[in-house]
Design brief:
The structure holds 2 protein chains of 2 kinds. Chain A is 0% helix and 50% strand. Chain A has no helices and 12 strands. Chain B starts with a strand and ends with a strand. Chain B has strands spanning 4-7, 10-13, 19-25, 31-37, 43-50, 56-57, 68-72, 75-80, 89-96, 103-105, 109-113. Chain B is globular, with a radius of gyration of 13 Å. The chains are: A mainly beta, B mainly beta. The A-B interface holds A 31-32, 34, 36, 42-46, 49, 89, 93-94, 97-100, 102-105 and B 1, 6, 31, 33, 41-43, 45, 48, 90, 92, 94, 96, 100-108.
């Protein structure tokens, strides 16, 4: 079935640093791709999504581009803030089903 | 997007007991999902719950341990039965919004079993 691989964390950055969290996927066809964020003690929030190849999803300064050539959906932000400290999950629909398959999650810690 | 609430937000339970988690959505949705997030881990799908039909369980999850109800299009419950410390996790419900494949999550129920 469809699967996703994320870079392992934790990722520790200083405030205003550039962020990249790598995500690659294996899928049948071209499913939608998602990034979710989980702040400490909270549930998951949809951060951004892309529904087809070359689409760029963006939200709160975060961006990710659906690259079918490299089967990637890397998350980027130009200048991180302490408030961005959270766990980030890459996800896609499972093969032939509506449920989501999640990556292992990447913990981001931003230091002032 | 749909607004989802869960009750309780957290609980501490004794082994051998059961806990029922409620998930309420502010709009009618066809598909609801229950996930488990073990400490420090990613999310694992427990089951898919559609109104008017039996829940569909994933490999490794059985109805006797995790019975699910879906009485209408805005509500579902998940029961964790005969709990053991290994059931200590965050349990999250999610719904598929009007956009196919796009899911929104509740705040989760943090369960600790002693």
């Amino acid at each position: 079935g469809n699967s996703v691989t994320q870079m392992e964390g934790p990722v520790t950055l200083s405030e205003e640093a550039f962020l990249t969290i790598n995500c690659t996927y294996t899928a049948t066809g071209y499913p939608s791709l998602f990034w979710y964020v989980q702040y400490p003690g909270e549930g998951l929030q949809l951060l951004l999504k892309a529904t087809k190849a070359d689409d760029k999803g963006s939200n709160k300064g975060f961006e990710a581009t659906y690259r079918k050539e490299t089967t990637s959906f890397h998350l980027e932000k130009g200048s991180v803030q302490v408030s961005d400290s959270a766990v980030y999950f890459c996800a896609l629909p499972d093969t032939g089903r509506r449920a989501l398959t999640f990556g292992s999650g990447t913990r981001l810690q931003v230091q002032p | 997007s749909a607004v989802i609430s869960q009750k309780p937000s957290r609980d501490i339970c004794q082994r051998g007991t059961s806990l029922t988690i409620q998930c309420q959505v502010d709009s009618q949705v066809t598909m609801m999902f229950w996930y488990r997030q073990q400490p420090g881990q990613s999310l694992t799908l427990i089951a898919t719950a559609n109104q008017g039909s039996e829940a569909t369980y994933e490999s490794g999850f059985v109805i006797d341990k995790f019975p699910i109800s879906r009485p209408n299009l805005t509500f579902s419950t998940l029961t964790v039965s005969n709990m053991s410390p290994e059931d200590s996790s965050i349990y999250l419900c999610s719904v598929e919004d009007t956009t196919p494949d796009t899911q929104y999550f509740g705040p989760g129920t943090r369960l600790t079993v002693l």
